Amino acid sequence: MTGGLRAWAVSVAATAVSAYALDATATAAGVALVASGLLGGDGNHRWALALLAASYAVWAWGLRANLRANQELLTSTGTSTNVLSKAAHDLTRRHTTSPRAVRLAAAAGYTVTEVAKEVPYYAGAFGAAVLTDSVTATGALVFLAGANLGAAGYEYGLARLTTAFLRRRRYASFDTDWEPAAYLDGYYRTVEPDEVATIAFFVDALRAAERDRPVLFFGVGPTLHHVFAAAEVASEIHLGDYLPANLAEIRRWLDRDPGAHDWRPFVRHTLRCEGVAEPTDEEVAAREDLTRKKVTDLVEVDARHPRPVARSYPTVVSAYCADSATADRATWALFMRHITGLVEPGGLFVTSALRRCRGYTVAGRSFPSAGVDEHDLRAVLRPGFGSPSIEVRQVPQEASHGYGGIVLAAARRTATSHS
Ligand SMILES: C[S@@+](CC[C@H](N)C(=O)[O-])C[C@H]1O[C@@H](n2cnc3c(N)ncnc32)[C@H](O)[C@@H]1O
């Protein structure tokens, strides 16, 4: 089952369980309040009305807590305890990058369902009051107030449960847990199918890069496998990453340290993508030398910063960076705006992301992934970039790493737009 389908299946099941549990809690609380004899007499009608009004305020408070928890659940797992809320969330996300609009849509979907669940209670309580003598109108109001209080308790309890579940799901930290050597060992011993596709796409996309101008690689990690594709077209290459340890690993390769990672299989694949049918060892070494010559700067960058580098570039490449740096879609969109803001008007942006992925493992630790797809990428590139070319590739072999697909994109910033 794909990640998207699994999220729907979990949401449908959670919605059904939640609806029954809410029903049972609210009914039991309503019956208990009536049975307590509180405000039972007919003379208490006004007090019963006041209690009902107050119970709505408490219910709204419980619902508010649950809406917040549901939003967090949707953002970090793509699932919800209310299927209508998930539908509204996913649909709105396809049409806008505004986190506020998406949040409001999810909350509206949830609230509409919870309000609709009130109808049977009203019908039941007042139907019984009209049809039988044993239930008075005051009794019906007390029952409804009790049901509201039960529902409030349920909403609040569900919010606490959801939050506790999310807190258990802790991701590893780049600052303290990232091991460049383990990342290279786990992902870059050989050219895996996702990189066969990514490098081929990048080679093709970079044919449209402006020649003899600088190229920035943003969030390059400890890797060079995408960089070889830019060596011929770039006047110079700047490599940026958040972690000094990653840049140190690259420095080792630039300095020909004997312990540096061996990128030759990736260089060979790059040359094949460029049209060299059987690259010789000399051609591979020549591309490595050219790349070493063209890399003139290693820079620490932080996508959280609105202006992560103090200049702009005619070509920016950012592979598996923003999506692999956060589990939160809204944060991913923000990082993407910061990164794409480095592209000059008329410049080229080339990117890739793990598709609908929730996390990937490095040395047994789980790092976050934003769970984005081609719709998210199109939406985030829409302002400022004219009709991006976006491709999806399935890579089921990578499921053990936490993803089964990738999204590849190339887009040109419109000549008039500024970051
Ligand atoms: C999965 S790695 C991708 C590395 C490389 N581009 C690749 O394709 O293998 C994600 C990278 O994002 C970087 N990163 C994490 N947080 C970041 C931030 N706030 N700003 C910039 N880069 C960040 C990490 O240091 C890491 O190198």
UniProtKB/TrEMBL annotation:
It comes from the Bacteria. GO terms for biological process: methylation. The keyword RNA-binding does not apply. One of its GO terms (cellular component) is cytosol. GO terms for molecular function: N-methyltransferase activity. The keyword S-adenosyl-L-methionine applies. Keywords: Methyltransferase, S-adenosyl-L-methionine, Signal, Transferase. Residues 1-21 form the signal peptide. This is NNMT/PNMT/TEMT family protein. It comes from Dactylosporangium siamense.
